Amino acid sequence: MLESIIYPWDSFDTASRWLEGDRTAATNSTIARVERQGSTDRTYSSQLPACVRLDFEGLERFEVVRDQFARWGVQFDNAIAVCPSNPAYPTHSGEILLMGAPQNGFLELKFSHPVQFVSGFITSSRITAMSAYNHLGETIARAELPSSNLADSKKTTPPNYQLIVKAPNIHRVTFYAFDGELAVDDISFGY
Question: Is it true that the peptide bond before 87 is cis, omega within 30 degrees of 0?
């Protein structure tokens, strides 16, 4: 059984770079590990950190990802954890990433509290849109991967291309790879 472990954000500062240069946000940031039912971790605080980076390494291969990170204020829809066997979809870090499944090319995050930004490293077989929505379901920010970026392709966009959406009051984010395959790694977000 895995437990949640909180680590100071000391080596992965991608998210904090996008907080308008505010490096002080990194002092209240964590790397969020998978939480399993029955965890005995007593480090939980009702106060959420300024920045969170999700660590997928505690997920099992082919595990459906829904509420494993609910403690950190995020739930997933249409996500599965994989250790990619296809070299066209490399991980950004570690061995595990998320793919949209069972519906190909779609992955959704829902936040229990509104966030200010969301970041993820994308590898996709098609143009991919990352859209942020407010509490009314209205699009408030969007980022786009301009073309496929598989590792074995001759495209100008490298695999694990970082997409970022930034806006006040983000309640939901979707990744959509128009009829393609989509892999997402190292998702970060900030309150």
Answer: no
Candidates 124, 140, 133; CA nearest to 171 is: 133
Q: Which two tokens stand for residue 159?
A: 């695999």
Would you kindly state where each structural domain of the chain is located, as residue ranges?
6-190
- C-alpha 35/C-alpha 32 separation (Å) is 9
What does each of the 191 residues of the chain score in pLDDT, given as a tens digit?
A: 223 223 333 333 444 444 444 434 444 567 777 766 655 444 445 566 789 999 999 999 999 999 999 999 999 999 999 999 999 999 999 999 999 999 999 999 999 999 999 999 999 999 999 999 999 999 999 999 999 999 987 878 999 999 999 999 999 999 999 989 999 999 999 98
Q: What would the two tokens of residue 104 be? A: 């190909």
Q: Say which CATH topology domain 6-190 has.
A: Jelly Rolls (2.60.120)
